[in-house]
Specification:
Layout lengths: L2 E5 L7 H8 L8 E5 L4 H13 L6 H13 L5 E3 L11 H11 L4 E4 L9 E3 L16 E5 L2 H6 L2 H6 L3 E4 L8 H17 L5 E7 L4 H9 L14 E8 L10 E5 L3 E4 L11 E6 L2 H10 L17 E9 L2
Parallel strand pairs: 1-2, 1-4, 2-3, 4-5, 7-8, 8-9
Antiparallel strand pairs: 6-12, 7-10, 9-13, 10-11, 11-12
Length: 316
């Protein structure tokens, strides 16, 4: 799905080494780079500068790496809060210690002097067959709140906006409250600054009934929105001759996941597949649930579906 890799800044001594590793990282590839330490980009740039800058035959390589690090790396990086001693130049040794505390998918470095199983040597990396580098396009997880939410934790950590899509959602159903509580808890844990979340669903009840579920939360296990988080429910209906409301998705501004069975908790023993969406599919689906276009009266215009109404809930 989406996994976090620690990449040794010291491999960026050449453009070839940089591009070989980084070109296959990013949300669409399922590989994200740990920002370990927080000065990781500066460290990588300094390695490139020392080895490439100012030399006629390699200065262009340095310029390309500099541009990529400054302008195209942010969407590949995942925050990492592990300890790091900036006075210790042995990045690999510190990454190995951090890996014991909170494992990476793998560590990519120039060497593996201590023969650590999940340290991959960049110059010998078989990207097609290495089991630690290879990332499957789907997960098969239990239909329980925590596994459903955990599949998206990496996406939550780097995203600025989130849209849930499930046409069958209803606050009156315990199975949806349980899963949404798990999702919202994971969002707050992974990205405390993210406060705007949308849930898109099919209209299947009156507006009064839906508002009643918000004003008088069902029991047991009522929906719990983290303090300060703004949850917006947007309801749609099918346009005449248009598409049905789509299957179940978790969309962010950077990537998306398709939940085969649903975003709700299932019966004991049930599982669902969760697929990593392509960027094209994510972007197209994101636009279909876009309420930004407005008509002359300020009402959202139909995109793929007809807008019905929306409801707001702010965590206290």
């Amino acid at each position: 799905m989406h996994f976090t890799f620690a990449i040794d800044p010291n491999i960026f001594k050449t453009w070839q080494a940089y591009s070989y590793i980084v070109q296959d990282c990013g949300v669409q590839h399922g590989r994200l780079i740990a920002n370990y330490p927080n000065s990781w980009r500066s460290m990588a740039l300094e390695v490139a500068r020392q080895n490439l800058a100012g030399k006629p035959e390699t200065n262009l390589e340095y310029t390309r790496i500099e541009y990529k690090l400054q302008h195209e790396m942010a969407d590949k990086l995942v925050p990492k809060n592990g300890s790091y001693n900036l006075h210790d130049n042995d990045w690999l040794a510190q990454a190995e210690k951090e890996h014991v505390r909170q494992p990476f998918r793998a560590i990519v470095s120039t060497a593996n002097p201590r023969a650590v199983p999940k340290v991959l040597k960049a110059s010998f990396l078989d990207k097609e067959n290495d089991p630690y580098w290879r990332v499957d396009p789907f997960l098969h997880v239990d239909r329980e709140g925590l596994p459903l939410a955990n599949a998206a934790r990496a996406l939550f950590s780097i995203s600025k906006k989130i849209k849930f899509v499930d046409p069958h959602f209803g606050l009156e159903a315990l199975r949806f409250r349980l899963s949404l509580n798990a999702f919202l808890t994971a969002i707050r844990a992974m990205n405390p600054g993210l406060v705007d979340v949308e849930y898109h669903l099919r209209q299947k009840s009156t507006a009064d009934f839906f508002q009643e579920q918000i004003d008088n939360p069902p029991t047991p296990q009522p929906l719990v929105v983290p303090r300060g988080m703004k949850l917006r429910f947007v309801r749609w209906k099918q346009l005449p001759g248009g598409d049905k409301i789509h299957p179940r998705y978790l969309l962010t501004d950077l990537g998306g996941l398709a939940y085969e069975v649903g975003l709700d908790v299932g019966n004991a023993g049930e599982k669902t597949k969760i697929y990593r969406m392509s960027e094209k599919e994510r972007e197209e689906t994101w636009r279909q649930y876009d309420t930004n276009p407005k008509d002359a009266f300020g009402k959202p215009c139909a995109t793929c579906f007809e807008f019905v109404d929306e409801f707001h809930l702010v965590g206290t």
